[in-house]
Amino acid sequence: MNLSIKHLYGLEGVPKEDLTQIFDTAFSFREVLERPIKRVPTLQGKTIVNLFFENSTRTRISFELAEKRLSADTVNFSASGSSLSKGESLKDTIQNLYAMKMDAIVMRHPVPGSAKLLSQFVNAVIINAGDGTHEHPTQALLDIMSLKEKFGKIEGLNVAIVGDIRHSRVALSNIFGLKALGANVALCGPPTFIPYGVESLGVKIMYNLDEALQFADAVNLLRIQRERQGKGLIPSLREYRNLYGMTRERLENLKKPLTILHPGPINRGVEIDSDVADGDYSIILHQVLNGVAVRMAVLFLLVGGK
Which residue has the higher pLDDT, 256 or 85? Predict the structure, then answer.
């Protein structure tokens, strides 16, 4: 039942065998989530700290639910109300928390590479819940699990990732995971949103959304991350919607089935219209449910569940 990795910093370099084992375990936990009593004793006696230095709704609550469904003891840490605001260093904060005998840390931090740095301070399992614009591995895992549930396979699937690729940690983790499992990946967005040299990862680059939709079996729509970017990368949200927004008209003109994903939070009326987000092609709420299952699987496999 052991993975070849000891921590989950990202999906870069994670072998196909590990990914397959995570998904198999996650589908087993999906069955647990359908039961009247949605709890198993697999991590009873383990202590997990959720260490969030950025705002989060879905990821934080999903991890907390996953931990409680596995019967782990959960501690939620908010940087804004901690001694960090008094000038304490991250290293001292973490080492003091670790002295209280934690088994694993789930951390979101605005600085890329922070999750890996954390492992130098403590001898606990580290799970990256998003580090700046670098990676967000469990989000990509739940995205891929949702595609696997929908299509029955990932190999040979055509997946388009559309939107603010440059500032998205979700995009990079999806690229690594999808490519490892044999999918064909295309990136689509304005030229200012496509990172220089990203084609070296084996992805197609497209600047026309309609062409990307013709290529795709599934499309993962990303929001414009205005909190991470400077001004002037796009002329206006209105123009962005006209060129890259997923509208009902665009779907109807496509004349083929298309599966729509979104990691959230959704900017309705910008990258996706409400009637599309809530429509039959969307599996967004399936992603949310699969997020709990896949995080249960990651915790179970890394923390040493029975």
Answer: 256
